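FIELD: query
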Amino acid sequence: MTRLHVKPAEGRAAPDPGNNYALLPAEGGFVPDNAYWQRRLKDQDVIKIEAPEEPAPVVATTKATRGAKANEL
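FIELD: result
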């Protein structure tokens, strides 16, 4: 299922049924692209915003040499 990145419109609150109807944070969040959130968009309760960039995954590149003790590296 695709997701939308939305935030509440100015002066509006948006309960999130996927989170026990807790209000969507002011900075927004990811929600499923379903009929509920499409209605919130249509009614202008939320606005679609650009998703933040995902941080690049951290990859360990240290390679121990054969026979070396851990504290000697």
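FIELD: remark
The two ends are 46 Å apart (CA to CA).
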